[in-house]
User: Fold this.
Amino acid sequence: MPIFCNRARLCYTRRMEKNALIAGKDAPDILEFADALIQTGFRVAVTGNAGDTEGTQAALIKWNKASAISARSLVIQAETALKTTANTIFYFDAALFSLLYPSMTAAVCSKVLDELTAGFQYLAIETLNRIQQHKKSARLVFIVRNCLLPKDAVFSSLKDDAAGTASPPVAAAQAAFTAFAENIAALIAQNGTAHVLLVSVEHQNAAMSTDASLALWLSEYLNALDSAKTRQNAKTSCTWIKAGAKMPGTFSLFRL
Assistant:
């Protein structure tokens, strides 16, 4: 079944189950975020290799980001581990990824394209396909943790910025991630196939500097969204929320 069809909007219940598949940032780097979500009552699945989740209650699922088939398998395995997947969190951590992909070679560029661009898109497509099949309430959460970009570093006074500077391939992947998130949010809002939340974490935001603080805020924010009397419309779905923003009431959102 195509994701974006001209059928009537699907009907979803408002309050979603407290569980999440977290993808993009893998174990063990994602465990601080995952464990903080678990502390708030979430059931969580993360991506990574065997042995990377020692000491956590998060379920571990292996994911080959360069493979569309692996993305489909990830979605199905997450549903099995969580019983159902209400929230899929796409986490782009530019500072971490710049450490993982620091150079600018043909091999690194190819890997970045496969893992930080195609991987997120494959997973979003498979997630939306499953939502269409199940016709149950679900949410896609896109998180981008920004770091200083090379072009901004030229003009910045933060020469010793602890977050570091993104490598050009990662900077390009971040731009692709944000563009994909914004535009898929617009299409989803028009078709009513799911809920979308876009979250931006600025590198200057000291209050959200740790994954634990980000996860605790996100958990509260999702609870507030589920309890809100006004549902997000297309305009608010495509608006980036600054991490740490006040809880939504009437969706007076913080813009980038």
Strands lie at 19-23, 43-47, 59-61, 87-93, 139-145, 195-201, 240-242.
